[in-house]
Amino acid sequence: MFIEQAYRGKHDFWLYLVGSLIVAIAAVIGQIPLTLAIFLENGLDSVGMSQPELMQSLDPNLLIFLLLLSFAIGLVGLKLAVKYLHQISLMTITTTRKKVDWGRIILGFGLIAVFSSISIWIDYQSNPENYVWNYKSMPFLILCLIAIVMVPIQTSLEEYLFRGYLMQGFGMGTRHKYFSVGLIVTLLIALVLFGANFMYDIDLLMNAVISFAALVTLVFIHMLLEKKNVYGKAAYLKFNTSFQFKFTPLIITSLIFGLLHLANPEVEKLGYSILFFYIGTGLFLGIITLMDEGMELALGFHAGNNLIGIILVTANWTAFQSESLLKDVAEPTIGFDVFLPLLIVYPIFYIIMAKVYKWKNWKEKLFGAIKPPVETRIPN
User: Fold this and answer.
1) DSSP per residue, 2-58
2) Are 177 and 240 in contact (CB under 8 A)?
3) What GO molecular-function term can you cite, just one (predicted)?
4) pTM of this structure
5) How many CB atoms lie within 10 A of CB 77?
């Protein structure tokens, strides 16, 4: 089983928290070249410029390379965490197969690449006024070279982190007796902070105060549970056991994956409803990972989605600006189309993948209990 592969190495949940911090620090270090490039281009004027102005001050190809560079450094950080904290190889969080199945990566890539290309062509033919032809031979060639090398690195980090590392990490976390309390308190902190920032635009100090109060509450609950209250403790342990199933890490990683896109300019432009698409996409990628017992399909799918988007069409309000073939100049709107992939397109992909790879036991693979392999269990 994919999640249970974490038992091959050191799998204490706190190690995954430290590993995630290492990845975050590595990614921040990877942003230093972008910061330096912006400062060298704009000098002290950088201080008073907005983020869009800072981004537009650089050559688009240089900008996209430097943006993607941080993901490459982050991937190095993840590899170090896996090797030295958990003492396993990247293969353990990649697949249950003896080696990476490139045929699966190609299929995942091909499905979304063909669908996206056809969708863009149909929309271009139907609404040509929404697009501007942007082809410039040399910038486009440079873009293709950068994208072909760097985009798979970017998407691989995201897949290795969410569908691999954290999927297994949260799976191991569910085995901890206080996982449910920690999860609930963390969700409450997130909801309170989001609501407070949304309604009142509170400052960093107040965020810290709210977080500290919630953590004190968690410690208090922990102390209560440590008391010799047999009935209360038994009830809690039973409640905690209800989280020890594969859907728990699946849901958690999908939510984190989607909510991390809050910083994208698409959210500011289209509104929070676009998060349904991001969370739903994370759920789709997580489901195909669990059903296929490996990340290959998700790796290919994510790379194909981002690569086609960067090369074929971009808009001024999207996360990545590039020297793409087309520029979308239409005023962005959002409606039922945000649910179209989730309700129609992704289910079709499920059917195709399930037929090709003969997926069975959906209930067990998605909702089954997370248990250590027999050989790692401590005898009674």
Assistant:
1) TGGGGGGS---HHHHHHHHHHHHHHHHHHTHHHHHHHHHHHGGGGGG--HHHHHHTS
2) yes
3) peptidase activity
4) 0.87
5) 23
Pairwise CA distance, residues 112 & 357, whole Å: 17
pLDDT, tens digit (0-9, with 9 covering 90-100), for 175-207: 877 777 777 777 777 676 666 665 655 555 555
- For residue 27, report the phi and psi dihedrals to the nearest 5 degrees: -65, -40
Q: For the CA atoms of the chain, what is the radius of gyration? A: 22
Identify the CA nearest to 252 among candidates 16, 92, 1.
16
Residue 151, classified by CB atoms within 10 Å of its CB into exposed (0-12), middle (13-18) or buried (19+), is buried
The structure tokens listed for 164 are: 């691999």
| 174, 244 contact by CB (below 8 A) | yes
Distance, CA of 79 to CA of 89 (rounded, Å): 8
At residue 379 the predicted structure's pLDDT band, cuts being 50, 70 and 90, is very low
| CA 149/CA 329 separation, integer angstroms | 28
| Separation of alpha carbons 344 and 334, rounded Å | 17
Q: Which residues of 256-280 are buried (b: 16+ CB within 10 A; e: fewer)?
A: bbbbebeebbbbebbeeebbebbbb
Q: Is the pLDDT of residue 377 over 50?
A: no
Reported as type and span, the H/E element at residue 148 is helix 137-159
Tokens of 299: 């790796």
Instruction: Choose among 23, 28, 30: nearest CA to 81.
Output: 23
Tens digit of each residue's pLDDT (9 = 90 or more) over 53-103: 777 778 889 999 999 999 999 999 999 999 999 999 999 999 999 999 999
Cβ contact 322:314 at 8 Å: yes
Q: Where are the alpha helices (DSSP H) in 174-264?
A: 179-200, 204-226, 230-241, 247-259
Alpha carbon distances (Å) from 157 to 153, 302, 353: 6, 11, 23
Token pair in block for residue 349 = 């992909």
Nearest Cα to 210, choosing from 228, 233, 185, 193?
Answer: 193
